[in-house]
Write a structure and sequence with these properties.
mainly alpha
């Protein structure tokens, strides 16, 4: 059980890290788009300088300025492309991480189920009392299945299990599994 809880913790950390990284990359992407816009205007200004250049020397400076501005703009576009690709990869990864969290939680609940069943089986006197009470009900004309009898008579709930009761039991069990946090279990 401890191993399953540790796996769940690690998967939740990986999911949180991926979300943080995605946020950072999206902020960087926005920043780069602003810089690319600025660099594009630098290219336009440098090209305008070429048309205004009067001497060969000023013409060469203007051409060098245009080339430098174009290189910077190209580098920024490549970086932006890489960031957009990384964002895409992260967005593809997040559902898988969320699924891993769900599967880890299901494994923990399955293990908890097995442990509780073994605990119930460890009390044969309680099971014997259930069966005796059911047999007595049969003698009075009660003809429902044992599962319905447990819900109606033992658990004192209607034919359908009350969702509030289940939610309270789930929260209580989750607190036992993850005592450090009551928000560990996703719904």
């Amino acid at each position: 059980m401890e191993e399953l809880i540790e796996i769940h913790r690690q998967v939740k950390q990986a999911h949180a890290k991926a979300n943080t990284e995605l946020g950072n990359l999206q902020a960087r992407e926005k920043e780069l788009k602003g810089k690319i816009s600025m660099l594009a205007s630098n290219v336009v200004m440098a090209e305008q300088l070429i048309s205004k250049a009067l001497t060969n020397e000023s013409l060469e400076k203007a051409r060098a300025g245009v080339e430098a501005a174009r290189r910077k703009e190209g580098d920024a576009k490549i970086l932006l492309s890489n960031i957009e690709r990384a964002i895409g990869v992260l967005k593809e990864t997040l559902p898988g991480l969320h699924n891993d969290i769900t599967l880890a939680e299901q494994d923990i609940w399955a293990e908890q189920h097995k442990r509780l069943i073994q605990e119930i089986k460890g009390h044969p006197d309680v099971l014997q009392l259930f069966m005796k009470a059911y047999a007595a009900s049969w003698q009075t004309g009660y003809r429902w299945e044992f599962e319905i009898y447990i819900r109606e008579k033992i658990m004192d709930v209607e034919f359908r299990v009350d969702p509030d009761i289940l939610a309270n039991l789930k929260a209580e069990m989750a607190q036992q599994i993850w005592p450090q946090s009551t928000n560990q279990v996703s719904n």
